[in-house]
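Review box. Two proteins, two foldings.
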Amino acid sequence: GAMASDNLFALELEIVARLKAVLADRPDVHVLSAIDLAAVTEEKQLLPALHVLHRGFAVSTMAGASRADGRVQVLDQEWVVVVASSAKRDLKRGTDGRLQAGQLAVRALMALMGYRCPSAAGPLRLVPGPGGVIENGFQYLPLSFQTMVAVTATH
């Protein structure tokens, strides 16, 4: 059949929804898409947060991923969930940004590893990605996932 959605970015909403559902017990965590982030400066960002970002796609080289007539193609999409948090440690208040980021990362991994988005042609798989960074008092830990999306041309 055709792609389960008419939107190449459909999985963005589905990943956001999945993370929000699994983290319902953590109302302090903000799950944000690229558009949510576009309007906000780093100093004013909401923390802690999970940023859901599309990292692009490749044409799948898997056997059976395309049809000879070129009208069916499976795309490997890459999505990154960035764990964003303060890099500060406040011993008086008992807050530790590093610990918080690590715990949130595990929650995000558990929510998404093997999860099949409704519009995808396969499960989310954890893949190698860039390392984390600490800058300007904030830390960012990217978790990279790949999944397949099938697109069918009906002409």
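Next protein.
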Amino acid sequence: KGKWSFIGTEKLKNSEFLEKAGTTAEGMLMTGEWDPEISYTKTSDTFLEFYRMIRGAESIPTEAEALGFEAYMLLLHAIESVGEDGKTPDAITGSDIQKAILNTKDFNGVTGVLSVNPDGDFQRDRTVWMVKNGTFINTKKVKKTAIAYKTIQPL
């Protein structure tokens, strides 16, 4: 009999899954974009610090909260970069912001370093977890995995 692994997303990274799957989960791999136990960048550390100041010291942000904050920061970065090109705030267009986002290189976000490749896909480090002895362990970060979002449209 061959050995195989089940691969899923971070949505399975919870105690209910481990209880139901039991020993069959052993060796399972999951990928995701956010783990509050990992220091991805200074931005992620700052995000976690402020989140816990507001929500409480033991609070754990969700991936959606981390990605939402990161999207907000990326948008601000894009607007600022258009302004650095000499445009006044009232002259900045949706197309200007789109171009700035598509030209993003090595943006230090909450979930890691983010770039956009020539095809318009976001690239970021991904986190990989494995089930080992009935618990989730962080095995590694996979560098600059392309994520085909292709949903950036002019405003």
